[in-house]
Specification:
Blueprint lengths: L5 H12 L10 E7 L3 H12 L4 E5 L10 E2 L1 H9 L19 E4 L6 E8 L11 H11 L23 H8 L5 H6 L6 E2 L5 E2 L3 H9 L7 E3 L2 E6 L2 E4 L4 H6 L5 H16 L11 H7 L4 H11 L8 H14 L8 E4 L5 H12 L3 E4 L3 E7 L2 E7 L2 E11 L12 E12 L12 E7 L2 E9 L11 E8 L4 H7 L8 E13 L9 E4 L9 H14 L24 H17 L12 H6 L12
Parallel strand pairs: 1-2, 1-15, 2-12, 9-17, 15-21
Antiparallel strand pairs: 3-6, 4-13, 5-20, 7-11, 8-11, 9-10, 13-14, 14-15, 16-19, 16-20, 17-18, 18-19
Length: about 600
């Protein structure tokens, strides 16, 4: 069970209005996309946007695949397999001469799932049904957590204006029944990600106008671990001069270094030098080096100088666009982003076919001729599907990547303050990749008030719960629940042994969405060379109907498209975090926000 956001509601409506009976489903499409993960959803949206007939099919009954976000009840169902893939039964299908049927495989992409309960467990025999119903009424189970938030929150007041409610929530007793009663107040991500304010995903959402289906909140603080304590990373000029953890001399060195990073031309750098060599040449102290390496560039010292400079510039260029830090968080979770792309696909005529069996692929003379679903052959010119489903004889071996994930429900924040914070922490690990920690609360619709959701992600296999406990980031006496698991993805490309079939890999350990976007662009370019990837979609009021070809109506439409294209360059996505309005207006590069449509 997923939460009912505007995007998911429209998508459910589209799936109901699409041919519901297998017999009435068209038998030919230009593009068939299997799976509703982020890469697949971007490809489906791009295909439908350019007028290609598109079928988007998934054996699961929810959107997002390994990128999904669940309510509490939905997460428990996913763990038990109730929200899993529909098992495909082998059914006979008539094939043309020379065609071959190849059954799909179903490699597991989620492994080692383990959950721990820390909340008080009450004896069910001592708790009456009336008590459970009362808990449900208190939690407001009939309310949805997806009403559009105004500038100050869902109730017209900020968290700091409600100290009594916050204190009451902090003292609330959490048990399994209470969590279940407040199920719809959770949005728990399988693959949590942040977006750089000037990163590729934000730019894609703006340029394609998909930003109207999304809402974001600015990350309010970036933390680092310094001498065993959590400290805030200075992310602006005022932060640099106000922090107590950097001396006056170091502040001048840091400001000079950051200015120099924006000015240095990578072409004039010695490619044999490392980023660490560059930092030494800028006379950074060990204290400043820690801040730059672990919280700004987030690259190792031995990486090439060009890589380090690019990462530093990406951080600096995103500062001030939407808030005090360079990062954004998707309201209702990262799982909203695949749904936003699916919604665009549905708007432009894409057909959705969810919760259906998918038996295999029909192949002839080195090309995919179609897929078999519900015992029927659906022909296509291009086929995209997750790598985990690719038949072994059609897949090309790629570098498998394992990502360790942990999710915690806690009654206390990482670094408690009066106001609720949206936090990012990059935790260095000796000999391993850094652990990326994201903490979200009720203000992002991630959980009920009184709880905090802490997501931890690291590349490779690591016992994240043990590590975070040993670092003091999670305290067992404050924990309510924890979930750990491993995600299996791959790097290396989208190619298969068939010239018109592409494989989409699952999520890998990255902070933003660079790899996923690059992969989607590569797949679309392979299908339709020369076509633009996700051009701007017009708003409803920009669409003019009834104009004759070559007539006045077409001229008006053309002018409007040109004007819309110019305006698109000036537009930004909408954030619902307005506590930072002053800092946004003071930013020199601030741009007007695009209104959200629900």
């Amino acid at each position: 069970m997923q939460t009912v956001t505007a995007s998911s509601w429209h998508l459910h409506k589209a799936s109901l209005l699409s041919p519901g009976m297998t017999e009435s489903l068209p038998t030919e499409f230009e593009v068939v996309v299997v799976g509703t993960g982020l890469v697949e959803s971007m490809v489906a949206a791009a295909s439908a946007r350019m007028g290609h007939t598109t079928l988007h099919v998934d054996t699961a009954k929810y959107y997002g695949g390994d990128w999904a976000a669940f309510t509490w009840e939905g997460l428990q169902g996913w763990i038990k397999g109730e929200e899993g893939q529909l098992e495909s039964e082998e059914k006979k299908v008539e094939l043309d001469e020379g065609e071959e049927f190849i059954a799909l495989r179903d490699n597991k992409t989620i492994l080692n799932v383990k959950e721990n309960w820390y909340c008080d467990k009450e004896d069910d025999s001592m708790k009456s049904e009336a008590d459970i119903n009362a808990a449900g009424e208190e939690a407001g189970t009939v309310e949805t957590n997806h009403q559009p938030l105004d500038a100050e929150g869902d109730s017209g007041q900020t968290i700091k204006d409600q100290p009594s409610q916050h204190a009451a929530s902090a003292n609330q007793k959490w048990d399994k029944e209470t969590l279940l009663a407040q199920s719809r107040k959770f949005n728990l991500d399988l693959t949590p990600r942040l977006l750089f304010a000037r990163g590729p995903m934000v730019e894609l959402l703006i340029s394609s106008n998909i930003s109207r289906y999304t809402e974001f909140k600015s990350v309010t603080r970036v933390l680092t671990m310094l001498e065993g304590k959590l400290e805030q990373v200075p992310s602006s000029r005022s932060d640099v001069f106000n922090t107590r953890h950097i001396s006056v001399v170091e502040k001048r060195i840091l400001m000079k270094f950051l200015t120099q990073c924006l000015q240095d031309d990578e072409a004039h750098q010695d490619p044999s030098k490392t980023f660490g060599d560059y930092l030494k040449s800028q006379k950074l102290t060990p204290n400043l080096t820690h801040f730059v390496v672990h919280s700004i560039a987030m690259t190792p010292l031995d990486c090439p100088i060009t890589t380090g400079l690019q990462a530093t510039r990406k951080f600096l260029s995103s500062l001030g666009r939407f808030g005090p830090t360079p990062f954004l968080w998707s309201m209702y979770g990262t799982g909203e982003l695949p749904q936003a792309f699916c919604r665009l696909c549905a708007v432009f005529g894409g057909v959705y076919y969810l919760g259906r069996s998918l038996e295999g692929v029909v192949v002839k003379e080195g090309r995919a001729k179609g897929v078999v679903t519900e015992g029927r052959k659906i022909s296509c010119e291009h086929l995209v599907m997750p790598e985990s489903k690719l038949p072994s004889k059609l897949a090309i071996e790629n570098n498998e990547v394992t990502t360790s994930r942990a999710m915690f429900l806690s009654k206390e924040s990482l670094l408690p303050t009066e106001k609720e914070q949206l936090t990012f922490l990059s935790l260095p690990q000796e000999g391993n990749k850094p652990i990326r920690v994201i903490e979200v609360g009720a203000g992002t619709a991630a959980c009920p008030k009184g709880l905090h959701v802490l997501h931890a992600t690291v590349e490779g296999e690591l016992e994240l719960e043990d590590v975070l406990k040993s670092e003091g980031l999670v305290k067992e006496e404050k924990l309510v629940y924890s979930l750990t698991f491993s995600q299996v993805g791959s790097k290396g490309g989208e190619k298969t042994t068939l010239e018109n079939m592409w494989g989409a890999s699952g999520p890998v350990a990255e902070l933003d969405f660079d790899d996923a976007i690059e992969q989607a662009r590569g797949i679309y370019k392979g299908m339709f060379p020369g076509e633009e990837f996700l051009p701007r979609a017009p708003d409803p009021e920009e669409i003019i109907l009834g104009g004759e070809e070559g007539g006045e109506g077409d001229e008006v439409t053309a002018d409007m498209k040109e004007e819309s294209s110019d305006n698109a360059k000036k537009e930004d996505i909408e954030t619902v975090d307005n506590e930072n309005k002053d800092s946004q207006h003071e930013a020199e590069d601030e741009e007007p926000a695009v209104p959200t449509t629900e």
